[in-house]
Amino acid sequence: MQIDLNRLERILPTVQKPGRYVGGEYNSVAKDWETTPTRVCLAFPDIYDLGMSNLGLAILYDVLNALPDVLAERAYLPWVDMIAALRQARTPLYSLESKRPLTDFDIVGVSLPYEQLYTNLLEMLDLAGLPLRSEERDGRHPLIIAGGHATFNPEPVADFVDAFVIGDGEETIVEVVRAYREICGESREAQLRALACIPGVYVPRFYDVRYNADGTVAAVEPNVPEARLPVLKRVVPVLPPPPTRLIVPTVDVAHNRAMVEIQRGCTRGCRFCHAGMVVRPVRERPVEEVLEAVEAILPQTGFEEVGLLSLSSSDYSGIGGLVKALTMRFGDAHLSISLPALRADSFSVTLAEAIARGRRTGFTFAPEAATERLRAIINKPITTEQMLDVAREVFERGWRTIKLYFMIGLPGERMDDVWAIADLARAVRAAGRKVHGRRAQVNVSVNTFVPKPHTPFQWVGLEPTPSIHEKQALLRRHLRGRGLKLDYSDPEATLLEAVLSRGDRRLGTVVRRAWELGAHFDAWDEIRDFSAWMRAFAEAELDPDFYARRERSPDEVFPWEVVSTGVSRKFLLGEYRRSQRGETLVDCREQCHGCGILTVLGDNWSEEWRCPEPAYHTT
User: Fold this and answer.
1) For labelling, which of 195, 276, 360, 489 has a CA lying 20 to 30 Å from the CA of 68?
2) Band (7; pLDDT cuts 50, 70, 90)
3) Which phi and psi (to 5°) does residue 190 adopt?
4) How high does pLDDT run on average in the chain?
5) 3-state class (DSSP) for residue 94
6) Which among 3, 174, 204 has a CA at the least distance from the CA of 103?
7) Exposed, middle or buried by CB within 10 Å (0-12, 13-18, 19+), for 550?
8) What is the mean pLDDT of residues 344-348?
């Protein structure tokens, strides 16, 4: 049944941005509750402003609501003021479309794009009135199913989630709903066994973990016949048509624009990049399909900007023709086009100029490292002179601001590499001043590298905090003055991200205790309570440095290897060793390096993308 709407009406005037909590947005789907057999709530464990910009949730909402016997609604974690108000009013978390509590749904699908959402997941479950642990829930409760990039290491939240969808969700979520429908009246054990039979679905309770005396994982063992090891991620060989009836938000959100995914995956092979490894192989959407999608989206949403989404937009093979066609077809509509993730080359500058329409707000490069030696280690080979040539071209074409993204703490980094960040930023500013004088601006963002699972750097440890502070202090001293702005990440936030992304199942105790001590919104600097996390670790007698800072041996069993991305450990270890020698690999589109992804996909893969015989095999 619906929550008390009169009570809700009394709450809303007392909180910030009540429009986050009312629903009724244009293009939202409200099906008849009583006549629709299967009900799914898609939940995003952060605020509406961020969740409404999540393309994965929008895709699943479109896929599920296209099924006549399924309804999909949405829920977002309220901001702290609304959480307090709901608790005081004893009103559970509800869906926006029908205003029904999450406990009324058959399935709650949670999106976990990043690890700092784990305490928010518990906040959502508790606010909904659901038991936190999977083992405490039964057939009376909705199934809690999670997906997203963070679930490529599902173990830190394995205690709280019934099943994880690993990889692409468009096909898997339909199979999950169908399996649930066939067995909805049976026990929770039977429901989960049915889900475990679906390729790409990981059910944690069907796997036992043994540990060595030193705390490392000894083995992961299935305990029911339905459980496979490892669980291979799902891959959609051909991207389905993109959603075009996008929901128009009621308040301003992080990215208030239409979104069309033009390409999934990346062939660049940056060794630090989690997304670039786990989303292989590359699949492109045809140019005409993108154009048709934009044509359909505009009259149905009223958006004035469309983002062409990809991990590397300028690598999309038809990007030049696509931009030209969009500007010609929609020029009179004054449509703004955004292209995130452009390479630092002249072609990208030409693309940006084509879509700028006189707007020169800023141009972003992500060299990641400021020396050619370190860029070779991370497999991002571009010379410093090329970087400066492109910067000069950007300024000469009218841009006054350039943003540069760097990382510190990369494997093999030396102090002179950190000095080089300041040197390169000042050189870029000097190039700008030759064109724009003192109006030229260089904004430098420096994050601390986190070694992520399923990447060639999964064997290395996080930089010690004193070293991070020393490098940040150096940058503060040498990146100051007019035309330079420095921003960098909080070392405490970095440590938390590293622990949660690299942890094992024992961290469930820590996550729960940190939440009980008040931790939530851990991705928000003004809300994060690091002391709660440190106390939770101490009470659990677990050392965060064991997870975050320890260098791993080549043969160590990783907690996240219960799932497989299709990229082989052999290839990743070979890439790590090549990084230590400063060797680079060319783009996968130019030469196959035998990473393994197309081998495991086998006959399920499209012939046009089949890998040629590898030039060599990793040793």
Assistant:
1) 195
2) very high
3) -65, -40
4) 94
5) strand
6) 3
7) middle
8) 82
State the Rg of the chain over Cα.
24
| Pair 384, 371: CB distance under 8 Å | yes
- CATH code assigned at 203: 3.40.50.280
Domain, as residue range, for 34: 5-232
Overall domain count for the chain = 2
DSSP track, 458-495: TTS-PPPHHHHHHHHHHHHHHS-STTEEEEE--HHHHH
pLDDT confidence bin for 562, thresholds 50/70/90? very high
280 and 219 in a common domain: no
Domain assignment present for 61:
yes
Q: Which of 503, 498, 378, 499 is nearest to 450 (CA)?
A: 498
Here the tokens at position 211 are 């540990």
CATH classification at residue 281:
3.30.750.210
Number of neighbouring beta carbons within 10 Å of residue 320: 15
Predicted confidence band at 598 (pLDDT cuts at 50, 70, 90)? confident
For residue 124, give the amino acid letter: M
- E-strand spans in 96-206? 107-111, 143-147, 163-165, 201-202
585: DSSP letter: -
- Helices assigned H by DSSP within 234-345: 274-278, 287-301, 319-329
User: Could you give the CA distance from residue 351 to residue 308 in angstroms, rounded to a whole number?
Assistant: 12
Q: Could you tell me where the beta strands, DSSP code E, fall in 484-580?
A: 484-488, 563-564
pLDDT of 618 reads 31
In a domain, residue 366? The reply is: no
- 53-68 per-position pLDDT tens digit: 999 999 999 999 999 9
Cα separation, 505 vs 508, in Å, equals 6
d(CA 495, CA 476): 21
Same domain, 59 and 152: yes
Residue in 25, 81, 89 with CA at minimum distance from that of residue 51 = 25
Nearest of 488, 360, 352 to residue 421 by alpha carbon: 488
The Cα-based distances of 601 to 196, 487, 504, 591 in angstroms read 19, 42, 27, 19
Q: Tell me the two tokens of residue 545.
A: 């440095």
CB 331 within 8 A of CB 370: no
